[in-house]
Specification:
By secondary structure, the protein is α/β, with parallel strands linked by helices. It has one domain: Alkaline Phosphatase, subunit A. The protein contains 11 helices and 20 strands. The strands form 5 sheets. Strands 2, 3, 6, 7, 8, 9, 12, 13 and 14 form a 9-stranded mixed beta sheet that branches. A 4-stranded antiparallel beta sheet has the order 16-17-18-19, covered by helices on one side. The chain has a 3-stranded antiparallel beta sheet with strand order 4-5-20, covered by helices on one side. The two termini are 35 Å apart. Bound molecules: zinc ion. Zinc ion is lined by residues 35-36, 75, 183, 260-261.
Length: 426
């Protein structure tokens, strides 16, 4: 991959990073992962509905990455990329050979590295793929796991605030909080359920059979309900930040907000995610705010989920392991950087590379590709002549060997049922 810079833009966000990590008062870290967030449905990413006042404020207080690409279009590999700094091909956490594969127990994660450097580690998560059997969240001193995959943002926030108020979380701390609510079904509690809803299709919270999904009234309804879930989740983040502020826990804390993948609304003939590598499923929010980060900064270069680990470590002045593929994106970001994504489980396996505004998607079977220019065609509707150089990069990425040994966690049958329940397999 051409990660070497032809043209580099120096971003002077941090002026004195190195003095923060090793000082007397070490900076706390809170990683907020919201499941299933299409960045284009947030106010700070220019959405026309007011879905995210709290997230917008967070972005205004720090740095917002305009073009963050998920390394995969569904939960398991996307989460693994956030915690390992690796692409989907390199961490190998995905679904193949009839199994979903968990993380190699030997692979370092953001949690295990921060724990080694003296951080107390706490995670509150709401999806099975972040449960202990998949290994992505291992290494936590305090672990709260809810696997009924329902709307639990309020309970999750309450629990974390209780942990803080009862001094169960010791500084310096690394806290992961994962909120599942925007994921299907779209059934936010009142009064959020009627916030954006218009007439027609009322009461539907799950997509019907795919053949029936072309009805524009249904698409509008499902989009409105999804947006309501975002606003509900945002309201709970508001409570979290207010509670932490009250306990004087925000001033010395780095906050990172990211999503594991996006969501699509029939733009390419599918709903949900895990079906393809178009931008609706890959474009996710990424926001960082903390001491020394210039408020109101917007970075437009392409970045990825796998940049979270190296960026947090560099910010804390902790060495980044050599095997990490992501980059410290509070430093220099090569303008010609190539961001890979891959892994589709419902329809066909695909891989893609994004370089500047050029994107190539390669479909493994049958062998075919699509090329788009996202600057001219953000909806990926007008296929261009194949970009052969970028296509070579896609094939090179696809050939990368896995850096570790993924584990098989559950029987194929149980796993298939889980995926069916989440709508990944139809
Ligand atoms: Zn997810």
């Amino acid at each position: 991959m051409k990660y070497s810079a032809l043209c580099c833009l120096t971003i002077l966000i941090l002026l004195t990073v190195s003095c923060w990590g090793g000082g007397e008062q070490r900076i706390n870290v809170v990683l907020v992962i919201i499941d299933t967030v299409n960045a284009n449905h947030l106010g700070c990413y220019d959405y026309d509905r007011d879905t995210s006042p709290t997230i917008d404020s967070l972005a205004a207080s720090g740095v917002r990455f305009q073009n963050c690409q998920a390394q995969a279009p569904w939960t398991l590999p996307g989460m693994a990329s956030i915690f390992t700094g690796l692409s989907e091909r390199s961490h190998g956490c995905s679904h193949y050979d009839g199994f979903s594969h968990g993380l190699d127990p030997e692979m370092a994660t953001l949690t295990t590295i921060l724990k080694e450097h003296g951080y107390s580690t706490t995670a509150l998560v709401n999806v099975g793929y972040l449960g202990e059997s998949f290994g992505i969240t291992r290494g936590n001193d305090l672990f709260w796991f809810n696997d009924d995959e329902s709307d639990n943002a309020d309970l999750t926030v309450d629990t974390l605030l209780k942990y803080f108020s009862s001094n169960r979380v010791e500084a310096p701390f690394f806290v992961t909080i994962h909120l599942f609510d925007p994921h299907l079904p779209y059934d936010p509690p009142a009064p959020f359920d009627t916030l954006f809803r218009r007439s027609g299709a009322s009461g539907i919270t799950e997509w019907p059979a795919i053949e029936m999904c072309s009805d524009p009234v249904l698409i509008e309804h499902m989009t409105a309900m999804y947006d309501s879930e975002l606003r509900w989740t945002d309201s709970q983040l508001s409570r979290l930040f207010a509670g932490m502020r009250e306990m004087e826990l925000t001033d010395n804390t780095l906050f990172i907000l990211v999503a594991d993948h996006g969501e699509e609304f029939m733009q390419h003939g599918d709903w949900g995610h895990a079906h393809n590598l178009y931008q609706q499923a890959l474009h996710v929010p990424l926001i960082l705010t903390g001491p020394g980060i210039e408020p109101g900064t917007v970075i437009s270069q392409n970045v990825g989920q796998y940049d979270v680990l190296p960026t947090v470590l560099a910010y804390l002045d902790i060495p980044v392991p050599d095997h990490v593929e992501g980059l410290n994106i509070l430093g220099e970001i090569p303008a010609d950087r190539i961001i890979p994504s891959s892994g589709v489980i419902a329809d066909t396996t695909s891989a893609a590379c994004l370089q500047e505004s050029n994107k190539v998607i390669w479909f493994v079977e049958p062998d075919s590709s699509e090329t788009f220019n996202l600057a001219d065609d953000p909806g990926e509707l007008n296929m261009l002549t194949t970009d052969s150089l970028l296509m070579e990069e896609v094939l090179e990425y696809w050939a990368w060997p896995c850096l570790c040994t993924p584990t098989q966690n559950e029987s194929a049958l149980i796993e298939m049922r889980r995926l069916e329940g989440l709508g990944y397999i139809r």
